[in-house]
Amino acid sequence: MTGAGAPAADVAELDAAFAETVRRTGASIGAMYLLAPDDQTLCLHLLSGVSAELAQPWARVPLAAPAPVADAVREDRLVWVGSQGEMARSYPRTALALPYPLALAAVPVTGVRPWGALLLMWPTTRPAHMTRREQGHIASRCRLLARLLEEAADRGSPPACGDRPRVLSTDKGRRTASPAMAAADFVERLPGGSCALDLEGHITYVSSGACDLLGRDAGQLLGTVPWQSLRWLDDPTYEDRYRAAVISREPVVFTARRPPDVWLDFHLYPDASGISVRIVPSGSQPAQPASAPRQTGRTAAPARAGRLHQLTHLSAWLTEVVGVQDVIDLIADQIMPAFGAQGLVLSTADAGRLRIAGYRGYPASTIERLDGLSLDTDFTPAGQALSSGIPAFFSHPEEMRRIYPEAPQVSGKRAWAFLPLIISGRPVGICVLSYDEPREFPAEERAVMTSLAGLIAQALDRARLYDTKHELAHGLQQALLPRTLPAVAGLRVAARYLPATHGMEIGGDFYDLIRLGDTAAAAVIGDVQGHNVAAAALMGQVRTGVHAHSALGTPPDLVLHRTNRLLTDFGPDLFTSCLYAHLDFARGRATLASAGHPPPLLRLPDGDTHPVDVPPGPLLGIDPDADYPVTELPLTPGLMLAFYTDGLVETPGVDLDDSISELADHLAHADDRDLDLLIDVLLAKTSTTGQRTDDIALLVLHHEAEP
């Protein structure tokens, strides 16, 4: 496929392969996510089985999110969820957003590089387990999708993340585009009937009997969604019953009252092409399906279930954000699309001024003009909204211009929602959603935005506190680790520290290189239990103690012994592992002692690499009288030593000795011309670039020649 028609052909081929994959697997719903250019977000690109509106809350999924598609890409594995109970245990946030019986598989779409993920969903009528043959078939189809994506990229037409996914049909033989075809589908599903809906909720067929019961002509109903054309169905219970039928593919029943006092039973029978609806006066219908408990909804307050569902979904996301940037990204990726906004400004209240913490959809010059406004500003409504605690909505530039003449011109937008962020009467900041065109803000939407503002305020307040603590702790740790390592003649050195990706991203791992005159040096690495402020503080004490004893020329066993005595005197609640090596270039000997630390790796000039057998003594801080055996080995030119902490080799379910042997194999085959690149290779080979539950320190020494 070449020439001007190649991009269109690429799209058609990818669409066909996706649709065929969903059809062959028997899935009722299929979705394909692509990695965004920043490689931090998954965008919904292709969809089948549901409408784009129904899938809107999942249109963008952060790669770091605890969600099946994110785990599939991040961990490069198939994620299988066989039941709603398993979903609740493994992915509680997803279960909250999808409270329906279903089975789910998320599979990475990976070729020469990761492209995204394929998401497949089935009703619970399928078995709760997936066979190896099924797994192999789905993996094969994902490889095909990856190959098509790579071929399109090679031809200069890679698929891009759009604002809305393309919705495809997986049924080649049946279409429901006309009332006649919809009626034929309906007849196949039910022995007689009254109404048919497509998967987007539009009425595609309605019988005369249904028109009589609903009180509307067919022309008033066809092409509409029931909760819009029949206002008495505009209720969260009814729309949620439709949502349950679409997602679970199981029959659903509910009862509704047509004013003034006519009660009707609605029996929903879904399949892959739509929903057949049986409408009868309440009480006259034969027994309802066992799987569909009766839902009356007679006490439900009128509201839009879609909005409430969306609010629940966004609330769950806001409870898990960590830092301020996470809050900004969530608002931009999830909340802005949910309300159709094109602009965002999130400001925090700081020392009487509004400091812009993040924005989207504005030029930098506009943000410079708006940043730092006083809380009592009359330039924009932000200060007034924050001081009063009352949201302000402007549907047209003229509304804004009457009160704030300059604001519309500076903003460049044509509609605004100013949402004050307040906690217990204390102003936290303000969130401004803006629009490129005038728009109305219905009372229902205003209520949802106001409720969401309270959740954003709590998330932002937590995030600011976290960022403050993190900056303090991170600064402490950076001050305790060596900024640079000293130059030692005949010795090339490289080191790396990686914090844990959970918690405060700090820890107690440390390393050091100490120059001892012209012909000797000492190398040390250690690991204080935990990764928090206490661990970082104790790490500083351990490193200081080791450095002080080393400078006096103390042998390795005594360095550890005296440092251990110092820590036991302090009585810390945390314990420390440590490995100390004295490098004597004049004698050509290296002397090592260990306090419960993983063994170093030794690579000889011929490439032979293996762990050094260093008998470990007790951890530091436990026994004040502990002894630490020493080990000597020849220090010959070309020799390389790699010191590391357990975060580099500990993997749940994998034997530690096997992990160390694997690391030794990687070191044996690594290019040693650039030690920093060598460290990059070791970190990449040991799968430490994703989520880390422990911090990592790595110190590599290469003896080139006699000093």
Description:
The chain is of the alpha+beta class and 707 residues long. Helix content is 36%, strand content 25%. The strands form 5 sheets. Strands 1, 2, 3, 4, 5, 6 and 7 form a 7-stranded mixed beta sheet that branches. The protein has a 6-stranded antiparallel beta sheet with strand order 15-14-13-18-17-16, sandwiched between helices. The longest helix has 38 residues, at 443-480. It starts with 5 loop residues before the first helix and ends with a strand.
Key traits:
single chain, 707 residues, alpha+beta, 7-stranded mixed β-sheet, 6-stranded antiparallel β-sheet, 21 helices, 29 strands
Average pLDDT taken over every residue: 83
Secondary-structure-derived class: alpha+beta
Number of strands: 29
Q: In percent, how helical is the residue content?
A: 25-40%
What value does the Rg take, in angstroms?
32 Å
CA-to-CA gap between the ends? 63 Å
- Note poorly predicted spans: 285-305
Shape: globular
Main sheet overview:
7 strands, mixed
Number of helices: 21
* Strand proportion: 25-35%
Brief account:
The chain is built from 21 helices and 29 strands. With 707 residues, the protein is of the alpha+beta class. The two termini are 63 Å apart.
